[in-house]
């Protein structure tokens, strides 16, 4: 970045500052002191300090006017505007006089290394994209637990396409020869000058394949545009979900390119937070954002969507089975107002509260076991298998409802269609509400109220339909006076949900999921002390369990 200033005496000065490689290349030829300054910058970088080099150049009035004319023409250009502006500025940033360098200690935020270690344990891969020098970036990476300096890390070097290609090929052969040894801790380090060529269509696939064989990727001396290009490469080639985290204006393009952007509120302004999807006051908030809120949201939305599929399949398929008896006349087995209110009132509150309050374990336990987050990455709760299972459950329950009532009452005996209609609607609505009770993992007062209120709303509407005389007058008395109704309700609900309950019980006893192990461990002791809870946590950590 460069600044043009005019002093009170009329002197015009260009003051650029930037990375040492960029500024050193633009100094006057044979400039004295550049070698000494470069050694000092390297020393600062090894100590983990963030460095910048400052230069200056006196500008003549004629040169300034020529630059302004060229710059204004480039700014108004309709084609390649950015390239023309960069070319105009490039002409000014030449033959510079060296001023010096700056070295600033960029302290890590509180609990940053612990947070990174937690997220790595959760199965999240880290790509560190920074504008710092390689030595500075490595020092920061080691301090953050992103990489370990003693490991056999991979370095991609080169200034041309051929050099970078050769470096990637050599490292790929070396990695293949080692057979993935050390993959769990190995890191790939590449500078911006080499990354320019590694991101091209020619080398993009090779570079990404090599990067995926490493636990961490460290890109240093990269520009904001290169950060966005790296994110785009990973998204397009791997089809993975990318989370972009940054705290400065130079991270905006990366945050916007990522699937989910998180801005950290820091001392570098609020540009990153304004461009992000989520804003956090500190880096350690990522643990709770992902392991608690992210995991809970995934669980809640999954159950909300799957239950919505199930209840509509179970409700509508009863009409389909009735078509065999009605000769496909188009007659619905439900009263119109019940069909209209099924999703609007009778079964809307339980899944709504399920999507708001549902959780399997306490948040403090989710933070204690980062591997639980892998259920989100693996999509264990929402996938074609679970969608098919819930669809089959809806189909099975509709069959039980229709043919149980059919054989128990007999359609030839139910000559009163109004009584038959209310019997079917009452049975299917109660079955759906019992199903949501079976899948609920976390009971609250609001959850219980939602189920009870749904039943009350149905009874109120049915009272208006039956007793007030809007529709189906007299059908309620016939239906509720028949003891077979209550027998049918009990038979249908038990027959429908018994396989569901039996399967849940069998899987919990023989192949318990991680959250079930944790849930049962802590359910035995409701209010443990800090020492007791730590002992329970250690006992669970000592067990071998999966991630299902």
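^ Assign residues to that structure.
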């Amino acid at each position: 970045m460069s600044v043009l200033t005019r002093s009170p005496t009329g002197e015009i000065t260009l003051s650029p500052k930037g990375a040492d490689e960029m500024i050193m290349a633009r100094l006057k030829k044979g400039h004295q002191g550049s070698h000494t300054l470069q050694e000092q910058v390297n020393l600062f970088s090894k100590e983990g300090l963030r460095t910048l080099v400052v230069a200056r150049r006196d500008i003549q009035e004629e040169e300034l006017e020529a630059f302004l004319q060229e710059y204004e023409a480039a700014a108004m250009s309709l084609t390649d505007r950015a390239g023309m502006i960069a070319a105009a500025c490039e002409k000014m940033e030449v033959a510079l006089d060296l001023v010096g360098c700056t070295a600033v200690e960029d302290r890590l935020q509180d609990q940053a290394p612990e947070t990174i270690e937690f997220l790595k344990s959760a199965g999240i891969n880290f790509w560190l994209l920074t504008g710092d020098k390689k030595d500075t970036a490595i020092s920061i990476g080691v301090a953050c637990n992103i990489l370990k300096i003693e490991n056999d890390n991979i370095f991609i070097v080169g200034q041309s396409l051929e050099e970078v290609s050769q470096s990637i090929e050599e490292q790929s052969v070396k990695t293949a020869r080692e057979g993935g040894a050390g993959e769990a801790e190995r890191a790939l380090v590449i500078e911006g000058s080499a990354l320019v060529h590694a991101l091209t269509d020619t080398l993009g696939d090779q570079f990404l394949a090599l990067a995926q064989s490493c636990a961490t990727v460290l890109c240093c001396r990269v520009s904001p545009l290169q950060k966005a290009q790296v994110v785009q490469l990973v998204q397009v080639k791997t089809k993975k979900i990318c989370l972009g985290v940054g705290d400065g204006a130079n991270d905006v393009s990366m945050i916007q390119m990522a699937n989910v952007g998180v801005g950290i509120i820091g001392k570098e302004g609020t540009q990153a937070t304004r461009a992000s999807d989520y804003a956090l006051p500190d880096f350690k908030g990522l643990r709770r954002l992902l392991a608690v809120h992210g995991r809970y949201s995934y669980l809640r939305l999954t159950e909300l969507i799957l239950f919505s599929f199930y209840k509509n399949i179970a409700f509508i398929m009863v009409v389909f089975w009735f078509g065999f008896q009605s000769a496909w006349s188009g007659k619905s087995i439900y009263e119109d107002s019940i069909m209209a209110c099924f999703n609007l009132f009778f079964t809307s509150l339980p899944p709504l509260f399920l999507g708001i309050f549902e959780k399997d374990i306490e948040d403090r336990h989710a933070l204690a076991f980062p591997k639980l987050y892998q259920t989100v990455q693996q999509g264990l709760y929402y996938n074609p298998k679970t969608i098919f299972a819930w669809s089959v459950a809806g189909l099975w329950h509709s069959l039980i409802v229709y043919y149980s009532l059919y054989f128990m009452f007999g359609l030839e005996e139910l000559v009163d269609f109004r009584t038959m209609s209310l019997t079917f609607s009452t049975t299917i609505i109660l079955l759906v509400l019992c199903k949501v009770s079976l899948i609920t993992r976390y009971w609250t007062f609001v959850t219980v109220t939602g189920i009870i209120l749904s039943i009350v709303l149905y009874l109120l509407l049915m009272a208006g339909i039956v007793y007030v005389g809007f529709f189906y007058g007299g059908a309620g008395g016939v239906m509720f006076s028949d003891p077979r109704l209550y027998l049918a309700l009990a038979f249908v609900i038990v027959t429908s949900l018994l396989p569901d309950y039996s399967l849940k019980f069998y899987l919990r006893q023989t192949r318990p999921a991680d959250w079930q192990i944790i849930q049962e461990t802590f359910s035995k002791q409701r209010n443990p002390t800090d020492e007791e809870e730590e002992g329970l946590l250690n006992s669970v950590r000592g067990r071998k369990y999966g991630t299902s």
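Residues 112-240 form a domain with the Rossmann fold fold (CATH 3.40.50).
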